[in-house]
Amino acid sequence: MVRAQARLAGRGLRCARPLTLVVGIGSLAVHAEEFRPGGEVLQGDSPDVAVRCAEVFGWLMAELAEVTVVPPLPNPPWVRWDHADSGLWPASGFLDELDQSLVPGYVVAAAERARGRLLAASLPCVLGHVGFEAQNQRWRDGAAWAVHDWDSLACQPEAALAGAASGGFGSAGPPTLAPVESSEAFLATYLHMQGRSFTAVEQEVAWAASVWMAAYNARDEALLGDTTVCRQAVQAQAAERLRRAQCLAPSRRNHW
Length: 256
Description:
The structure is a single chain. The chain has helices at residues 2-10, 47-64, 105-120, 158-168, 180-194, 200-224, 229-244; strands at residues 23-25, 28-30, 125-129, 137-140, 143-147, 153-157. The chain has 256 residues and is mainly α. The protein has a single domain, classed as Aminoglycoside 3'-phosphotransferase, Chain: A, domain 2, CATH 3.90.1200.10. Strands 1-2 form a two-stranded antiparallel sheet. Strands 3-6 form a two-stranded antiparallel sheet. It is globular, with a radius of gyration of 18 Å. Mean pLDDT is 89; it is low at 250-256.
C-alpha cells in the first residue's frame, strides 16, 4: 500500500508522499509520510460533484494499474463480498455478537442479491482505492488537493471498484449512498477517462457493488445505533440499483 501511495505521489497525484518504510510495532504497521494540510471537503453528491470526483478516481485507477504489489488481502470488509466466512457478512468480531435482528430485512435482502451477482461474475481483479469518500479527499481552488486513507486499498474487479466509488463518493461523514443519477454520472465519467466502455456484465457488477457496500454500511448503522442515513438510502434505491445489476428476486419476494 505504501508502495502504491509513493508511486502516485511521485506521478503528481495530490496525496501525502511516504517518507519511511513500514515498521511493525506490535500488531500495528507504522510509517511516516509528509504533512499535507489544508483544502476543503467537497460537499454534496449531485451529478456535477460526481463528475469531478470520477475524474480524480479515473486518474487514480489508471496510475494504480501500473503498480505491481502483493494483493492487499484480505480486502476491507465493506468490499469483501467474496469472503469464505459462514453467513452473509464477513466475520467482524464484536459486531457479530450484537443483536442481528436490528438489521432491517430489506438491508439483508439487498446484500444477498448483490453478493450473488458479484460472486457469479468472473472478472480479473485489480488494485483500487475503496475509501474514495468525500471525507478522505480535500479540494483547493476547484482542484483536488489531497486523497487520504491509503490503508483502504483492495483487489477486486475494476467494475466493482468503480461501482463502489460511484455510490460512496459523497460520504462526508457517516457513510451514505449517492443518488442513482449521480452514480450513473460517476460511472460514465470514469469510463470516459479510461477511454472504453463496460461490458454488460461489468455494468451489472458495478451496480451490484454499490448495493453491497451500502448494505454493509447500513448494517453497521443498525447494529451500532448510528444515524439512519444509509438505511434510508438503501431502502429508497436498492430496487433500481438491483434492477440495473440484473439481480432482482422473484416478484413474490419483492418488497421494495
